[in-house]
């Protein structure tokens, strides 16, 4: 199916125009957060899930809800709490009685059966419930009682979490964190942005934005993204970056050997290259460049670097390590 999509002048121009329209529609609701919006749209164009981290009240949930309107996707919100169970997410087989008096089991889908799923405060529930998302995120399906239930495409999980040091939170398992294409941090608003937020939220309520794209067009964009060529020098650079995140690798710089326990998995390399392709298209270019890989390094790798105790003790962040990595790895 992907072979039916080619990189043409018309395709590139249309994608650049569509993404610009989506950003404009989001900006009418969400104040600021341009880098976060860019990251989310890049991940969606690559078919990936996103983990949004930030303190409460900075617009994470609003951004995801606005996306569902702009992209015209079926939307579901799951509020994660300590008492949430896997069946509350996936659904369950319930016993029903028909008109003939016969009792049968019928599958009642849970809120995971939507195209855009907001996993709100995902780190406020227990690891058992967090793990209920694993199959859905990786395989786009749910298996219950031996039966497989496919999820409607396109399928995305956009999860929000508060900083892990806050009370009542549970760290996400590494296997689940790795399934997120990007991890994006939502900064606090500036003074001018805060003024705009207050003006919008304390005045007359505005209607949600009109749809700009739909599911079919989004799937087309995903196929076109994968058709974008990547020069060998760009691909090799991305692979060297990922290899250098492992402290045992000979090319690992000193900060990685000192502050990283485990480096990025192959999903990190996949995310770097796919994101580079998407960013090239969004910029109206026909092939991925080194600058695209460098831009994607932070959101694609920051959640895939497992820090050492020394890094935690000294307050060394993943972004600081990635900055050293980018400075050390040559083209």
Give an overview of the whole structure:
The chain has helices spanning 9-27, 34-45, 60-70, 86-90, 127-130, 134-139, 174-177, 191-201, 215-226, 232-243, 254-259, 266-282, 290-301, 309-314, 318-328; strands at 49-53, 75-79, 91-97, 103-109, 116-120, 141-144, 147-150, 156-161, 180-185, 260-262, 306-307. The protein has 2 domains: 8-82 and 113-225, P-loop containing nucleotide triphosphate hydrolases (Rossmann fold, 3-Layer(aba) Sandwich), CATH 3.40.50; 228-331, Magnesium chelatase subunit I, C-Terminal domain (Helicase, Ruva Protein, domain 3, Orthogonal Bundle), CATH 1.10.8. A 5-stranded parallel sheet has the order 2-5-8-1-9. A two-stranded antiparallel sheet has the order 3-4. Strands 6-7 form a two-stranded antiparallel sheet. It has 15 helices and 11 strands. It is globular. The chain is 45% helix and 16% strand. With 331 residues, the chain is of the alpha/beta class. The relative contact order is 0.15.
């Amino acid at each position: 199916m992907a072979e039916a999509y080619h990189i043409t002048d018309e395709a590139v121009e249309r994608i650049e125009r569509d993404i610009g329209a989506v950003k404009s529609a989001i900006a009418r609701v969400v104040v600021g957060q341009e880098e976060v919006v860019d990251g989310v749209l890049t991940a969606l164009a690559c078919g990936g899930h996103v983990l949004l981290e930030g303190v409460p009240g900075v617009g994470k949930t609003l951004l995801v809800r606005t996306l569902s309107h702009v992209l015209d996707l079926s939307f579901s919100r799951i509020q994660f709490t300590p008492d949430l169970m896997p069946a509350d997410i996936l659904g369950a087989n319930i016993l029903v009685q028909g008109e003939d008096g016969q009792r049968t089991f019928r599958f009642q889908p849970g809120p995971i059966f939507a195209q855009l799923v907001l996993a709100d405060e995902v780190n406020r529930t227990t690891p058992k419930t967090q793990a209920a998302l694993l199959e859905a995120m990786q395989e786009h399906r749910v298996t219950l009682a031996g039966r497989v239930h496919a999820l409607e495409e396109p399928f995305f999980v956009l999860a929000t979490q508060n900083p892990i040091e806050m009370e009542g939170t549970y760290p996400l398992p590494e296997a689940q964190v790795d399934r997120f294409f990007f991890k994006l941090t939502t900064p606090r608003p500036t003074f001018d942005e805060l003024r705009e937020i207050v003006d919008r939220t304390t005045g007359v309520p505005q209607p949600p934005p009109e749809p700009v794209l739909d599911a079919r067009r989004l799937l087309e964009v995903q196929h076109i993204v994968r058709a974008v060529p990547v020069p060998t020098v760009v691909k090799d650079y991305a692979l060297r970056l990922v290899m250098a995140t492992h402290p045992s690798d000979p090319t690992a710089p000193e900060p990685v050997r000192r502050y990283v326990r485990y480096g990025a998995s192959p999903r990190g390399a996949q995310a770097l290259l796919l994101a580079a392709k998407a960013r090239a298209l969004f910029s109206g270019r026909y092939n991925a460049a080194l600058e695209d890989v460098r831009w994607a390094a932070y959101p694609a790798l920051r959640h895939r670097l497992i820090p050492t105790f020394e890094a935690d003790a000294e307050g060394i962040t993943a972004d600081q390590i990635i900055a050293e990595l980018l400075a050390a790895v040559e083209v």
